[in-house]
Amino acid sequence: MGFEDNTRNAITALQYESGEPLDIDSLKKVLDSYNITNIDYNDITIYKSSGENIDSPIGNESGFDGAAIHHYNEEKGINDVYYIFRGTEVDLDAPEDVVYDAFGVVAGVSDAQIKHAQRFYKTVETDIAQKTNGNEITRYGDGHSLGGHLIVSVALIEKNFDDVRGLNDAPVNLKQLVDLDRQFSSYIQRKTNTDNISSIPQEELVLLARDFYATEANAISHTRVKGEPLYAQSIPYTFYPGAAIHYLGDMETPEFPDVLTPRTPWPGLTEVFSRPPMFGTFVSLGLGINADLDRVAYNANINHLLQFITIIGEEMTVAELSELIGKAKDNPWAALSDMPESVKERLKEEVGLGHIVGGLWALKNTAVYEKVLAVINAKEQFDLHSIGTLIELYDQPGQQRVTYRLEPGTDTHILVDEDSLVNALQAMEGALEQKREALGLLYHYRNMELHERMFEQRERVEGMMSNKEANWRAFLQEAGHTYSKDAIRKPTGVTFRKEFDPVPASAIEQIDGIIEMYELDMRELEQLVLDYKENLRGLFAADEALAQSIK
After folding, report:
1. Can you give the pLDDT at residue 120?
2. Which of 30-44, 135-149, 300-314 has the lowest mean pLDDT?
3. Strand (E) or helix (H) holding 538
4. I need a surface site. Which of 145, 210, 393, 411 has the fewest CB within 10 A?
């Protein structure tokens, strides 16, 4: 059994190197803080993409930053490796992470960090296999924000992780998976008869991905703080694979504004046409219908932005983009002039002046104004995205996590109320115990009480015979019969048969039928309880304390 989730959260935070680097000393400090004192640190090897315990650094060009902690003890049967990928670090002097967020996560046209994450993974796996003589490895993965996007993507592609957790993680991009996972790409072509995913409706593509990665998704979960900004963004061609989503914090916190969608349409009307609010730009189409041009413009601006990002990302590497951003910080026009001609030509041909006009229009666009105002009003929710806030809430005493399970093969999330599920298990176990008690009473009645009652009745009847058999008149008189002396026919005596018949077989058969019915119910209920417990263990796998209580 590996480290518990709260311990893994704290180890993931070390990857940010805020104060001290991830090394044996900082790892020991974290484990000690969670009362883990039975670790022999000679059994620990830490691999880092910066070059520690690998031949050469991996990821300097793309901004990828990852680590792996290998815990190996052959005698104790431990061979665990924890892959930890760092999230975005905003630094204009080293903007590779921000560049990848835009061109990798959002546009799906750059896969540089995923490729470096895979290269790091394979380098570590090769070294571990040599050290452990190929013994079976248990693989764990953790990543916050961008790091969650990377670790989940690698887990889907490699298909051999045992437990993966995204912490306030960014989604995976389907365009990247199609490019990097040949099996998935072949699957999409077989199902749709096309290799152009842009021609496939996004909803259909997501469902195909969920179906293809169903096995891998069972090992993936997401832990997020309710209301943090990243999850609310509707990024095209992205999704969150996994079996469960665990929410922390105040469940009444509203979702952060989705900046990639326009203003919410008025009820009962189409997306583009709506009743005019107090202010805005509208064109009357007659019959009382107005076109909300601000919404149209907002859509156009977003589409131009995504198209702009896609073109640049396809034409330039992360290193080139990072260098360009460095120049733009001091002289935007110089950076623009240094942009490769191929990029300029594509922007001219595919976007034209639309993005310029749209950008100017955005300055007085009420939809933009409302969205900016909504973001400003929710600015305090930015703090909910940090790894520090997540750890604080996770470790908070009495914190009740709310869990959603993902219905297999769909994108439907089902609320999992842990208290209700555990109470249902207790109710079923109580019903099972009542069945056992009832069956025990039936066995006792069948084998003991029935015969005891029969014996009591025989004694009573035998007692009656002994008192009255000498006086037949008294016996008949008690039965309501009287005879005169002149009666022509009258009994002269009563003869009793002293033997009694056994309990009728029909009575025993009826009781045996009831017992058989109870036994069948018992077997079915026992199997139901076993299956239910197994499902609960799977549901609460991330909460080891709760899982252990389900016995």
Report:
1. 97
2. 300-314
3. helix 505-539
4. 411
The answer to whether 378 and 243 are in contact (CB under 8 A) is no
Taking 60 as the threshold, does the pLDDT of residue 129 lie above it? yes
Query: Strands across the sheet with 66-73, in order?
Result: 44-48, 66-73, 78-85, 138-144, 163-167, 220-225, 244-248, 402-406, 413-416
Q: Scan for tokens 């709760």, then name that residue.
A: 546
Scan for tokens 């919404």, then name that residue: 295
pLDDT of residue 348: 64
Report the 10 Å Cβ neighbour count for 317: 15
pTM to 2 decimals?
0.68
| Integer Cα distance of 438 and 329 in angstroms | 80
Which residues make Cβ contacts (< 8 Å) with residue 533, sequence separation at least 6? 425, 550, 551
DSSP 3-state percent helix, strand, coil across the chain (nearest 5): 55, 10, 35
pLDDT above 70: percentage of residues in the chain: 67
Long-range Cβ pairs for the range 338-345 (8 Å, 24+): 339/312, 340/315, 340/316, 342/315, 343/311, 343/312, 343/315, 343/316
Closest residue by Cα to residue 17 from 66, 74, 82? 66
